[in-house]
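thought: fold this chain, then report.
action: predict
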Amino acid sequence: MTNTMMTTPLRLSGRENGPKGMSNGGFACGTFAGLLGGTAKVTLHQKVPLETDLVARISGHQATVLNGETLIAVAETVEPFVLEPPVRPTATQAEFARSQHPLRGVRHPLSNCVVCGPERPDGLGVTPGPLATDPDVLAAPFRPTAGYAINGVVRPAAVWGALDCTSYSAADYRSRRFCLLGSLEGHQVRPIEVTENLVVVGWTRSAGNRSVQTASAMIDEDGAVVASARAVWVAVRHQWAVKTIARFVG
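observation:
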């Protein structure tokens, strides 16, 4: 028996940006995962454009996202999973970690990211910083507003966005090495309401020459993991160019 191919249009909001001119990786991956029910691994093949008419082709357990004939991303369903973080920071510890964000006050390509950008007053404010007890673990509070929710329930894409940015490598933050998201595999255990106060924590699983495998988890006030993700980040080749452009591009 063959799977039926379905086609659906997609258009990502211009306000949900990561680096200038492209979508936040987590928001994009969460949107694409939603085509398959929400629990999926999404591999990004190109930067995801904003305010652009995209097409998703869905067949069985896979969705392919195209911009014209250009392959943007591939999403594949995975089994539900829950990752246990190495530590469960309190809300106070996460708030202090956010205040220690390594790039706070420094102009960089993610300064205006909708999730982690310190200069985005309308963003999610998930600006992760190192824990005082373990500088290799990042944490930030997650207090979503109604602007990122539907009928009081936080959009899954926003949850994926928070998991994405918190999964950035602490070592790469310290060294100011700029990386882009290569893939994100996520699972959300339950719906999250805007009235909740949560903490997001991220840690590194392994590191290679240019790629880093990381993970992140979102924890509720009872200490339960309500969403988690595995990520692969890839360092941009020409670091000097990225840093130079960031000084002049808003």
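thought: worth noting. DSSP finds five helices and 13 strands in the chain.
final: tokens above.
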